[in-house]
């Protein structure tokens, strides 16, 4: 045996993969087409994930969670996404919503809000974007004004994943309009707070089972201690959060692509033309080889980024975390779009119908190139890191 450490998930993480895959195949995949067709929340997936404590594995043990590391969390999201992309947004968005609290929240805030998430009693969404503040998130207009021992929030957040289903929301709002990005603060808002409402569900190309809605804040008064970190640090927290959670979008993209590749492999072995399986044709084999090769490259970069994310969460300064998280998100999502498109091509006319899952996977893959920072923005971020 070599003393050189294996550059791979641990035996425990691979066992976790097998467990999640078995669960996803049995409890999530059978409902994926129906969830997509009816654009309904995948309650069966939530129930199965909560029952097996896989809905928010990243929450530390001290707050009642499983305390899984970032790579284990990637594995969970990847395997759920292989069966149903909409369902994978349950563990992914629970992480997105809670990382700001983990990074910057007071101990009281962590105890109050992370424990219910760990128990599966609540989900946690992230509210940064607005209608006129997408890539330019610092251009947000939502305001939070201090009033005695409370903050009063007004505004509307756009494109909020799992809005209306989640109980808690990390909301970014302007507290000092004269300070630009340094005048933005972060808050925990509860679904039950008076003045909180939701817009209609967006009618989307993919991930139809995960509701995307506006979060509307009208004179929402919350206790002053629900601010996450110091006043004016919200945008810094938002950017730091995305350094960690872009990796979960890469994981989702990997899972979608793997699901498409697996289905295409099974199909080409069975489908016969000119008297033999189409898998015997070199043109098909080259497509499969390219799909698998690109997918594995994206997977290795994503796992590499996840390890760096975990080290950063433990306080280590990781100089290239922003670079690797943006790189894995952009690469994995581009690969997912390519692989799912090729899977549709390999199935021919059947691939274009809803009788087979690859057209859904192709539609689901598209959003991974857009949310948590478009891939054009990721390339800007990567270039800035290179040119520092």
TrEMBL record:
Residues 10-121 form the Acyl-CoA dehydrogenase/oxidase N-terminal domain. Residues 232-387 form the Acyl-CoA dehydrogenase/oxidase C-terminal domain. InterPro entries: Acyl-CoA_DH_CS (IPR006089), Acyl-CoA_Oxase/DH_mid-dom (IPR006091), Acyl-CoA_Oxase/DH_mid-dom_sf (IPR046373), AcylCo_DH-like_C (IPR036250), AcylCo_DH/oxidase_C (IPR009075), AcylCoA_DH/ox_N (IPR013786), AcylCoA_DH/ox_N_sf (IPR037069), AcylCoA_DH/oxidase_NM_dom_sf (IPR009100). Residues 126-220 form the Acyl-CoA oxidase/dehydrogenase middle domain. It holds the Pfam family Acyl-CoA_dh_1. Keywords: FAD, Flavoprotein, Oxidoreductase. Its cofactor is FAD. The keyword Oxidoreductase applies. Belongs to the acyl-CoA dehydrogenase family. This is Acyl-CoA dehydrogenase family protein.
